[in-house]
Fold Sigma 54-interacting transcriptional regulator.
Amino acid sequence: MFNNETLQEFLGSEKFEPESIHDFPLAQVLSSIHDGIVVVNEQGVIVYANPSYTRILNVPVDRVIGKKMKDVEHDARILTVLKTGKAILQEPIYLDSLQAEVVVDSTPLYKGNKIIGGVTVFKKMGEVIDYYNALTKLNEIKKKKKLKKNKDELKDPFKNIIGSDPLFKKSLQKASAVALSGASILLSGESGVGKEVFANAIHKSSDRQNNAFVKINCSAIPESLLESELFGYEEGAFTGAKKGGKIGKFEQANGGTVFLDEIGDMPIQVQAKLLRVLQEKEFERVGGLQTINVDIRIIAATNQNLEAMIENKQFREDLYYRLNVVQIRIPALRERPLDIELIAKHFTSQFTNLYNKKLILSSEVVQRLKHYDWPGNVRQLANFIEHGIILCDEPIIQTKHLPEQIFEIDYIHEYDSNDNEELRIIKALKASKYNRTKAMEDLGISRRTFYKKIKKYNIEL
């Protein structure tokens, strides 16, 4: 630690007083160190001790300088180090003569291959314990921060899902957090909110990501075929069954994930077999006797109130609780207004690339999109943007390029917000020189809404 030329020069003298190192007074540097430091030459004579030696051991430095270490502390570890040439590190010591507990690092000092002395650095045992407690506390803080970061930080597949609204981010973070758990998940939310997108991201963030992700829309498959579609069938199981039979979706997904969309539309008799798959991980094909074992994760989705369906005996309560280990509600688009413009611009970029056009949304279109109710959610917004891009033959997409449904709202957003609705209509009529079609476009309302307002306020045309 201190085996520099300056130290070596003074080890042979009676008193160790190095002058400087890198333009700093070395004695001052050593004196400012909080740990106790004591240096001996090759004969074991103490040539230096810093002020912390006195602070820790309560022994004045001038009482030990020039004395042999064995006379000061006969069992000092530095004496062993001088004999063996091997360092002794982090060793707790009880000094009998001083009744002091310390932790020492004793290291030999060499000039070439020859030992010319040694240095011991030591701390009070109580200080070491304080350091340990502080380190333990620091590690706990770091662990909590890491857990929070892991909880808040989205896994990569979720980072590609567009949305910054706090309500939506909460759903994303929950889905990301449970992706690795392997638990069954129930995704709830209106049609078009992106339940399949969530399910796919959960699968890609799980340890099943390299295996199959099998999607089944329970409402799209006829009730008479759903059981054989899910569980497969044996040859001769029913009229029209293929020769050799057919494996079902659950077997196809073995080792992976099954996404059951519109789970509320699953017939009761099929629900019973699904419950067995969740509980026992086994089933038989339709018309078969052999039990088939599968390792699958189930992610179910619904836009229905399953609890109400349980009350009406339309959905099994035991299956509901098996599916609903973790429920994630995906908010409707109207509940996340901060995301509407963001998503609209994303779809604009996507569809302009698809149709080889260069278009942007007008500010009027953006405002209209923000104030629409979006009963079809993100899926409907994508449809509206694609519609506008296909019809637009100008550089900027205007409200006239959007589907007529966008105008089916009663509130007029244009003009000075301090004006009342009647005055806004009158202003629009005057600005358009009473061209009704132009006034409707400027106001951003449909023909039906326009004439309803004209009648309501008894405005003369």
